[in-house]
Amino acid sequence: GDSVTQMEGPVTLSEEAFLTINCTYTATGYPSLFWYVQYPGEGLQLLLKATKADDKGSNKGFEATYRKETTSFHLEKGSVQVSDSAVYFCALKGIQGAQKLVFGQGTRLTINP
Amino acid sequence: EAGVAQSPRYKIIEKRQSVAFWCNPISGHATLYWYQQILGQGPKLLIQFQNNGVVDDSQLPKDRFSAERLKGVDSTLKIQPAKLEDSAVYLCASSPAWTGEETQYFGPGTRLLVL
């Protein structure tokens, strides 16, 4: 079945550092790919998405590119802020069946001032 | 536009007791999802409704979990009897439809602790 594997956390960085959180997937065909973010005390929010190969999703300075050849959707940000501290989830939505979201295990990110 | 509403926000019960969670999706959203998020893991889909019909309940433990969406709007998820391993956050989400790449919008969740 479909699955998502994320870089294990927790990840701790200093403010203004470069961020990469790795995400790879296993799925049939061309699923849609998502990054969701969960800030402390809040619900899951969509951060960005990409629906076909080579698409780049972007939002709030974060970017991720849909790479079919490496089945990856790595999340990047050039300069992180303390306010980016949260748990980040990579997810896919398959093309078969009920098209449910399948999530990775999440990566906790802490940014120190 | 109001978001997805869930209640209660927190619930503590003893094992073998029953519990129910309520969700009201975003107005006009046809599809409603219930997810279980165990600490340290990503959310796992329990059940998906399209209007008031079940689309996918393959991961719902049907011996103890049940869910309904009688009028195609709000929904309840019930656990009876609860086990220790049911301690988790129960998330409700909704989306306008179930095809394509429609975004799912999540509620704040109900945190359940089973003692």
Features:
heterodimer, A: 113 residues, mainly beta, six-stranded mixed beta sheet, four-stranded antiparallel beta sheet, 0% helix, 50% strand, B: 115 residues, seven-stranded mixed beta sheet, 48% strand, globular
Structural category of chain B is mainly beta
**Main interface by residue count:** A-B, 23 and 23 residues
The H/E string of chain B reads EEEEEEEEEEE
Taking the alpha carbons of the first and last residues of chain A, their distance comes to 41 Å
Q: What does the oligomeric state look like here?
A: heterodimer
Strand content of chain A: over 45%
Counting DSSP H or I runs of 4 or more residues, the number of helices of chain A is 0
Rg of chain A is 14 Å
**Low-pLDDT windows of residues of chain B:** none
The DSSP helix count of chain B reads 0
Shape of chain A: globular
Molecular shape of chain B = globular
Helix content of chain B: under 10%
Main sheet properties of chain B: 7 strands, mixed
Mean pLDDT of chain A: 93
In short:
Chain A is mainly β and 113 residues long. Chain A contains no helices and 12 strands.
